[in-house]
Give the backbone structure.
Amino acid sequence: MLRKLALVVGATGDIGKVVAEKLSLNGYNLLLCGHVGKFSLDNICTEHREMRFDISSPKEVEETFDHIKASASQVDLVVNCAGIAEKEGMLIDRADEEIERVISVNLNGTIFVNKHAPSVLKKGGCIINISSFLGVQGCSCEAVYAASKGGIITLTKSLAKEYAPMGIRVNCISPGYINTKMNAEFSEEEKAWLVKKTPLSRMGEPVDVAEVVLFLAENSYITGENLVVSGGLLI
């Protein structure tokens, strides 16, 4: 039986790493993309190839997808996990360069990946974008991050309509507070407060997101959806 092929963008991050491992253990070979950090994947047991590009660079994204096409690799799944956070603070105090960087990586980068993904996807393939529950409800003092993530959700819904005639599904996952390095800056008191707000009384783990990626990848009748993985935080 031929193994499927998944392209995981942002595979050096905590969520991207676990997504790659989950896919590998469930029948996927992997193309891994990252910009910073190491591809330290402990449980990879299949073929995988590592590439690097700056997701905020339209030229580098296009060149990477051209390289994949030239290698005659048809992809079943594209997962975009790449993203950066912003430091807490009011918008009026933000440096313009910080605003531009968050939007360039989180929103523009996702747009570039989604633009080129159909060029390598098989008919019946799937794109999964990672947003955030803050993109659903907004957040004081993280307005730019929330805006960038909200844009990913509406991008997903729009492209689900555009790409359906090509036989390509597009879905989105919005995690809540997940136990990653991005959230490590919270104090113990802040973490306890977040857990108290969450009906399931715990922070999420990257594997909680990875399992939803696998579900969306394998269900051929779901498109245009944003699944919130937050332990009930948005109830």
Q: What stands out?
A: The chain is about 40% helix and 20% strand. Strands lie at 4-9, 28-34, 48-52, 75-80, 121-130, 169-175, 226-229. The longest strand covers residues 121-130. The mean pLDDT is 93.
